Amino acid sequence: MDVTIPESRVAGRVRAPPSKSYTHRAILAAGYGDDAVVSEPLLSADTRATMRAVEAFGGTVDRGDDRLDVSGFDGRPAVPDDVIDCANSGTTTRIVTACGALVDGLCVFTGDESLRSRPQGPLLDAIGQLGGRAESTRGNGQAPLVVGGPVEGGTVSIPGDVSSQYVTALLMAGAVTHGGIEIELETELKSAPYVDITIEVLDDFGVDAERTDAGFAVPGGQSYRPEGGEYAVPGDFSSMSYLLAAGAVAAADGDAVVVEGARPSAQGDSAIVEILDSMGAPIEWNQEAGEITVPRASLSGTVVDVGDTPDLLPTIAALGAVADGDTVIENCEHVRYKETDRVEAIAAELTKLGASVTEDRDRLAVHGGESDLSGARVDGRGDHRIVMSLAVAGLAADGETTIRGGEHVDVSFPGFFEALESLGVEVHRSR
Fold first, then answer.
1. Using 50, 70 and 90 to split pLDDT, how confident is the model at 431?
2. In sequence order, what are the beta bridge partners of 400?
3. What is the per-residue burial (b if ≥16 Cβ within 10 Å, else e) of 29-55?
4. Catalytic site residue from 46, 204, 269, 311
5. Cis peptide preceding 314, ω within 30 of 0
6. Which of 16, 156, 165, 30 lies closest to 86 in space, CA to CA?
7. Is 356 annotated as a binding residue?
8. Residue 378 contacts by C-beta under 8 Å, 6 or more apart in sequence?
9. 165 is in an annotated binding site
10. Burial of 200: CB neighbours in 10 Å, binned 0-12, 13-18, 19+
11. What is the distance between the alpha carbons of residues 322 and 325, in angstroms, rounded to a whole number?
């Protein structure tokens, strides 16, 4: 689907969607348990993949109004009847691959072309260290994967600079093993706030996990039981970043965008508030009410290290294309291993809109003072975050911007274009 965004002015109130990261973890945590309700979940293509995996392992997931009723497999996943299709969800693949290592038999995990290009080798190696079977069918550390066990716990050594999701996967599975799992990090952990999210969710489900001098540890023999049998998913700051950026680059004169659902949590991507502030946006966050207000501002370039916040890179780049001066995004090589190479993708597509961009392996510089955005036809690269960031840039580009692949927002923010329409943008869709 092609989506066309005209240069626009926006204003009004809009609610951020529930967090994708928390929803993934909550669904699987409920699956590891007996019975639990996950309230206010994000229902998207990615989280539906995690629901399918829980059901493949022997659980059930019933959808209600703003809730999921999950009957889990109580720490003992069954051998799936069929291949588990993780679609385009890298998070699903990694967290359920570790779950597959608990099965007394074999599981096969695969997904779409993009997912089958993403690195899984360190997680496969970790499962092997625990005595499980874990192989890439093509021998390249990428899906399709064949995994089995059952592993009983132990100590693993893994790199921390490829994906924090390996740590999340092992912590979640380790809690229901007999001996628990200790994780020793061979390198500095990238995207560390995502592990903080995992530990927060585990705690809310009554599971203990901790940081150690070497990395992380989770004792075995634990049970997943949220207090009162219910877990509520917070708002998603990754998705919120596009709405806040829209306000900063395109709010109507004398007006603002107010984003609801912005309550404090362990999400590293809440750093978007600090980033916008550093660029000169007069942003206000009422944490008690869970509301962030941002008017249009004359933005200035900034320097951002995205080692812990890789999902913000496309948003920051779009902001940099509108700002004065240079916006430099550092420590970003790991952002190349997402749904697409997001560093290359956002650099190339913003260039089509008239942005001046310099791309290095671990660094992206957007030269706002040398950029003059004009509407063009751009490609979302099949990546939800690239699509939404280009839409933000389109709000400030002269003329109309047409984005190929607009349907991919369904991965994390199915109502994104409807949210823009509620703020006053005339969104045109065509097949």
1. confident
2. 6
3. bbbbbbebbbbbbbbbbbbbbbbbbbb
4. 311
5. no
6. 165
7. no
8. 349, 352, 353, 390, 401, 402, 403, 404
9. yes
10. middle
11. 9
Residue 430, pLDDT above cutoff 90: yes
| CA-based radius of gyration for the chain | 21
Q: Is 163 annotated as a binding residue?
A: yes
- pLDDT > 90? residue 285: yes
Cα(81)–Cα(145) distance, integer angstroms: 16
Q: Is 21 annotated as a binding residue?
A: yes
pLDDT band per the 50, 70, 90 thresholds, residue 65: confident
Dist CA 69 CA 63 (whole Å) = 6
**422: CB partners within 8 A, 6+ apart:** 12, 14
Residue 374 pairs in a beta bridge with 398
Report the candidate in 117, 101, 122 with the shortest Cα–Cα distance to residue 172.
Answer: 101
Q: Which of 60, 63, 57, 66 is nearest to 108 (CA)?
A: 57
Residue 212 CB coordination number (10 Å): 11
| Neighbour count for residue 104 (Cβ, 10 Å) | 11
Phi, psi of 102 (to 5 degrees): -90, -10
Give the C-alpha distances (Å, rounded to integers) separating 158 from 124, 137, 171, 184, 212.
10, 21, 13, 6, 14
Structural domains of the chain sorted by starting position, each given as residue range(s) with its CATH number in brackets: 2-17+235-430 (3.65.10.10), 20-232 (3.65.10.10)
Axis crossing angle, helix 90-100 with helix 45-56, rounded to the nearest 10: 10
The dihedral through the CA atoms of 343, 233, 55, 126 has a sign that is positive
Q: What is the pTM of this model?
A: 0.83
Task: Give residue-wise pLDDT tens across range 309-364.
Answer: 999 999 999 999 999 999 999 999 999 999 999 999 999 999 999 999 999 999 99
pLDDT digits (tens, 9 = 90+) for 186-204: 999 988 999 999 999 999 9
- Residue 385 is assigned to a ligand binding site: yes
Ligand-binding site membership of 118 (annotated): yes
311 is catalytic: yes
Q: How far apart are the first and last CA of the chain?
A: 5
Q: Round the average pLDDT of the chain to a whole number and report it.
A: 97
The verdict on whether residue 164 carries a ligand-binding annotation is: yes
Distance in angstroms (rounded) separating the CA atoms of residues 372 and 356: 8
**Is there a contact between 32 and 168 (Cβ–Cβ < 8 Å)?**
no
The β-bridge partners of 133 are: 148
